[in-house]
Amino acid sequence: MGRRLSPEGGIQMSDAYNKGEQLLMDTYEEGIKGVLANLSELSPHIGRYIVEFFGQVFTNPLLSFTQREMITIAALTSLGDCPGQLKWHIQFGMKVGLAPEEIIELITHTIPFSGFPRALNAISLAKLVFEELGIQIAIQDELLNAGNIRETGLAKLQEIDGEHGTQVLESLAGVAPVLADQIVDFTFGEIYSRSLLDAKQRQLVTLASLTAQGGCEPQLRVHIHAALRVGLNEQQVIEALLQCYPYTGFPKVLNAVSTARQVFEHQK
Amino acid sequence: MGRRLSPEGGIQMSDAYNKGEQLLMDTYEEGIKGVLANLSELSPHIGRYIVEFFGQVFTNPLLSFTQREMITIAALTSLGDCPGQLKWHIQFGMKVGLAPEEIIELITHTIPFSGFPRALNAISLAKLVFEELGIQIAIQDELLNAGNIRETGLAKLQEIDGEHGTQVLESLAGVAPVLADQIVDFTFGEIYSRSLLDAKQRQLVTLASLTAQGGCEPQLRVHIHAALRVGLNEQQVIEALLQCYPYTGFPKVLNAVSTARQVFEHQK
Amino acid sequence: MGRRLSPEGGIQMSDAYNKGEQLLMDTYEEGIKGVLANLSELSPHIGRYIVEFFGQVFTNPLLSFTQREMITIAALTSLGDCPGQLKWHIQFGMKVGLAPEEIIELITHTIPFSGFPRALNAISLAKLVFEELGIQIAIQDELLNAGNIRETGLAKLQEIDGEHGTQVLESLAGVAPVLADQIVDFTFGEIYSRSLLDAKQRQLVTLASLTAQGGCEPQLRVHIHAALRVGLNEQQVIEALLQCYPYTGFPKVLNAVSTARQVFEHQK
């Protein structure tokens, strides 16, 4: 493959650039060309950094492309103020293999972590992308038996979070028992009990949503434990956090990695 | 009342759903129908969660509807990236009894906590809503006597925050005395001294603005103390934090509740 | 100079107001008139607060106008959700002496701290402003020798952060060595090694980006050390944090000042 995106033929680009260029040209040529064209006049260097990121981090096989785009779309949803980039990644996510239904589902999964408004805005963007691409899907409400929602939620909480989830509930018992009920019913009885994403995918989305917001270290601790519990390994957890840094910057990722290190040490 | 919003007549909806539906249909029928119509194709489940929230949390009598909408509008103002939802709640807030002047005033109250830009953007949205509804109001600058602003501010700080406010000023004395002056003059001499909202309402708005931003635990501590000081009880403080979770997600609310628990224990 | 912005001739405005008014009328008359006109109907008091801020804080000679606007543009870039105010300050920044290239460069400098999307959105706004003003600039990629990027980055990290930077790398060695490499290569090998801004300017931008986000206290600690190391004094560091409060609110600035106090005490 020739160098097709490089600004000038004579410049020796890094290996990361060349790998990123190949990936992007193979999957979403018009998308990356659009990004670089917008940057060409005032900030071609930023275009290079972006391509290098894809070559350097994105191609690491610890996580699949679809896992990485789940993380990215979740991080951008929870950041909330980057609709242009979120739209780009909804398109790119489908290019690398995410189903439209999976995109809606992972956005839905961010609701307990970063609230309804940001999820609603992300779904509006997804709807726009689907319409532009002529994609028609209809998603039904997976209405659970409301009578058993508490029971379903408690079982799911135990499955995902184990003792760390129970500790959260206990810490709320004296001060905000209604909040404990809401978390059991809504987060675990409803959201975690939905189909379409498995437990590992849900934990990747959770880590991304918490990392992107910042200041959620106690919840990151619980959910890094949960990520290991449902079968992700330590390297994959770290890799999920690394996938966030282009979108969040290094500080939030450094804080999340620091929390992960504490969890890993605690497990030994 | 018949079930007018349920997606299908045959589905047995939860009690929370039925209560929420009745509330929303009685207060803002076109608003909730618009929300649900937007969600109908790709995420009817999210529409159900929203209606259930109104039935479950919103109707709890610990806080009034107008107090809840003050909290919600403040949280959305300080989140900053959810203009669609903020506009909806400015409209809904008026439906449940907030005066346009109160909406402007509560947005003004967020300035010391989340800055001018987000408040200015919220006021622009409010202006738009008022214009669409043909509401004409004119608000005068309540210009205080600039010569006494320090004195006014110190008295108001003492009234609201008590010793906890004094401690903040003392902690700044050695390192940033100008900042201490600015907080006294601006936050307390100007903002807290304005009319239209009482001290309880101002503390509800403050708690919402701090919770929505995340990472403001030291300030939450001071202002939860202040909330109790001006006459809100512990249950109302917790309820104010719970009112935030649909907009902020659970993690920020869990961190705020954890801070509240520490304050409550410290008071005993 | 007559009082040209005051809402009513008969009102006695504060000295801060008068100083702020003079500064703003002398530098960006149409800009401040636009802001105040938008606020005149519903919130003239907020217009007064804004003018007073310029008179009170902005005119303090501890930092120059161009330094203050670098801080402001960086804070608004990293806040991410205030495009209207960011656009205003890109225009105002040029009025007080920032070159268009410096604006692009300071936005570029925020990438490692608050991510690509917010920087890309800020650059799009800058591009729009430049087009409206008929400003044509072309910026070349400062492509460093990729073979030496690690070496360049380590030297620059040592120069800026000293032992505190080394400690960050060491803390990552066991858990996320790739992240350490990325920070060395990208943050220091690329971004900090670019021309157009000097080390002091870069630290002011860094402090603003970290303060605006909140929750980045560990990184603030490292970079307040670095700010002192590259030649800013303690008063200037505090002043840089104070410059942020109109855009971020007091809580984030209080937390940053608290971190600064710890750094200052640690140095003694």
Automatic annotation (TrEMBL), chains A, B, C:
Q: Which residues fall in a coiled-coil region?
A: none
User: SUPFAM superfamilies recorded for this chain?
Assistant: AhpD-like
* Pfam families assigned: CMD
Q: Which GO terms describe its molecular function?
A: peroxiredoxin activity
* Bilayer-spanning residue ranges: none
Where is each Carboxymuconolactone decarboxylase-like domain found? Answer: 44-127, 178-260
Q: Which InterPro entries match?
A: 4CMD/NDH-1_regulator, AhpD-like, CMD-like
Per its record, how is this protein called by name? Carboxymuconolactone decarboxylase family protein
